[in-house]
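Raw record, unedited: Cytochrome B
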Amino acid sequence: MARTGEPYHYDRAQRGFHWLMAALILAALVLGISAAWQVPGTSPRREILDIHKSIGLTVLLLLPLRFVWRLIAGEPAYRAPPSRSAHLAAKAAHWSLYALMLLLPVSGYVYSAAGGYGLPWFGVFSFPRLVPVDKALSLTGYAAHYWIAWAVGIVLGLHVLAVAWHAWIRRDEVMGRMWPRQAG
């Protein structure tokens, strides 16, 4: 149980990271799916993929900042702590999301860099190629990126279902922990 006066919600920075990265990841997923339906090497596929890569690399750059801030700020207390199994499930889901937020852009980077494709960031600059151009490595990066994207979609779907369950079935405070602070 939390001490009197202890916050029961994530701080403003953690909420900002959460919602910004959620929007970026959703946008990157939508763009990646959209690009898959376009003819390779043509417009608008190239432009869609440039934005997709820019967003993915942005997520990769934000992730260490988010992770370090999470370690510094910690997790807020619950007014009514969840069961041990629910708490462990939430921890596993959060660590899975952090791992996937790292692995998805890294695999995309490997796919693009090893394939000899550009690594733009919104047309401002290009990221350096840190892996050699290698077709086999690029194909491995592509396969990893494809399957990790599916895993992200599944885990995010489960995350949204868990939030809905807490908000509408259990009617507990879980949603409010990441929502902007309300009086009371």
